[in-house]
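Same chain as my last thread, 89 residues:
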Amino acid sequence: MKRLMLIWLMLIVALVISCASPSPVNHVTEPIPSIPMPASPSVPVTTPTPALKPVPKLNLEDYNGGFFSIKKLAGWNIVTAGSCSGPVL
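reply #2:
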């Protein structure tokens, strides 16, 4: 029993030591890159914006499949699983 307690104590000590944060003895900080500034205060800094593409309007229609209903694109056909199979002999 004492051996088991000693093993658990060593395991806990090892976990505490490994999880402790390192001390910042030789901690070197790197400078934060600065934001480019305009040559003069009268020149505004602008960032390029992506061109917006027009979103096509979708022509949706209701579809009722008996035990489910959805909106589908007009002109599309929906085939539910098993509707193409023939009678089982």
